[in-house]
Amino acid sequence: RGGNKYHGRIASLADAAREGGLEF
User: Residue 15 and residue 18: Cα distance in Å, rounded?
Assistant: First the structure.
């Protein structure tokens, strides 16, 4: 967090992937 623009998107994708049962 701070100057990371992609952190939010990555976290969102990771959450979706986790729900889907994928491993990041």
Answer: 5
